Structure formats: structure tokens, C-alpha cells
Amino acid sequence: MKIGIFSGSFNPIHVGHLILANYIVEYTDIEEVWLLVSPLNPLKSVDELSDKYVRLEMTKLALEGYPKIKASDFEFDLPKPSYTINTLDALKVKYPEHDFTLVIGADNWAIFESWHETDKILENYKLKIYPRLGFRIKIPDRLKQRVETLDSPIIEVSSTFIREGIEAGKNMRPFLTENVYDYIIEKGLYKHYKNEL
């Protein structure tokens, strides 16, 4: 099976993540997208992240009704920090029957050369790059067999924007699935919020 690997903090998962993942399974050759919840992104500090199991639970809640999109804790037991090449190689070992494609945004593609062992990633895996506002996607000719640009909708919603909005007491319900928003409010995540329930 062709699996798209979309790794992220998902702190919290929002409608933009769902729109992108759903676009990929409906409009490309990818049959399933696995959302890998990162326990610790090398580019983020520990202080920025909610508990990994809380983020995994929110991801599972958001994916109810999306059978082609799966929440995964695969990186939880891998060495920290979670380097993409190590994750992809470990997935290939555990699931040799699957063909894995890495899904990243144009913002990450712009700094891809700074990632750990990028040559190895490009040699062994395909990439699908989704557009982000303000970033032009340039793919060298030598990589065009392995790297593809997606024509997916650009949804400029960020988890940071949602966290800050909730902390400021704003109603952020439209940016999240109903059950994830209710979970955040019930658990008192992201500090302060107005009592809307």
C-alpha cells in the first residue's frame, strides 16, 4: 500500500491538517495518510509542546470518520529527537509491504537542506510538497522523479494561532473539529479560556 507520512506536533490538530490529509488520499496515488505525532520535533523546544499522549488523543478524535487517515504514535519509542530519516527507515523495517512517501510543506522544503541526512531521504523515499503562502517550490530537475508538488488548497491556519486564541479566551471552535475543541475546553488545555459550555 502507498502510505503518506505526515509528521507533526499536532498541538493541536486542526482543520487545515485534515483538509490536506484528505486531499492527498482523495486526489493522489497515496492510499492512506499516517499522521505521526512527534514526541519531540528537533526544531521545537519541549516547553512548546503539550504532552504527547494528549496530542495523540486529539489526533485520534479529529480523525473519526476518516478511515483513510490514521493517527500514529510510531515515533514515541524511537530515539529522541525524532529525525525524519530514522523514522522513515524504521517504518520501512517494520512495514516492508508498504511504500512510504514523505509529506512536507513548502516552508520545510525551503530549509530541507538543513535537515538530518537529506541526501539519504531523497535517495530512498519519494516526497510530496504542499504549498504554503509566501514560499515558492523549486524542484531541481534531478529530483523531479522523486519529488512532487501538490496542488492542494492553501489553508493558512496554525496551531500556534489556535493556542494563542484559546489562551486569550477567544472562540476558536471553527478551526478545530467539534470533538477536539470540546476536549481542549474540558481538559483546560492551553491555559485560559472563556467558559462557553
UniProtKB/TrEMBL annotation:
All residue ranges annotated as the Cytidyltransferase-like domain in the record: 5-164
Function: Catalyzes the reversible adenylation of nicotinate mononucleotide (NaMN) to nicotinic acid adenine dinucleotide (NaAD).
Example of a GO biological process term: NAD+ biosynthetic process
E.C. number(s) listed in UniProt: 2.7.7.18
Originating species: Dysgonomonas mossii DSM 22836
Name listed for the protein in its UniProt record: Probable nicotinate-nucleotide adenylyltransferase
CDD domains per record: NMNAT
Molecular function via GO: ATP binding; nicotinate-nucleotide adenylyltransferase activity
Keywords for this protein: ATP-binding, NAD, Nucleotide-binding, Nucleotidyltransferase, Pyridine nucleotide biosynthesis, Transferase
Keyword Membrane (UniProt): no
Pathway in which this enzyme or protein is active: Cofactor biosynthesis; NAD(+) biosynthesis; deamido-NAD(+) from nicotinate D-ribonucleotide: step 1/1
Catalytic activity from the UniProt record: nicotinate beta-D-ribonucleotide + ATP + H(+) = deamido-NAD(+) + diphosphate
Claim: Nucleotidyltransferase is one of the keywords in the record: yes
One Pfam family per UniProt: CTP_transf_like
UniProt-listed SUPFAM superfamilies: Nucleotidylyl transferase (SSF52374)
Family membership: Belongs to the NadD family.
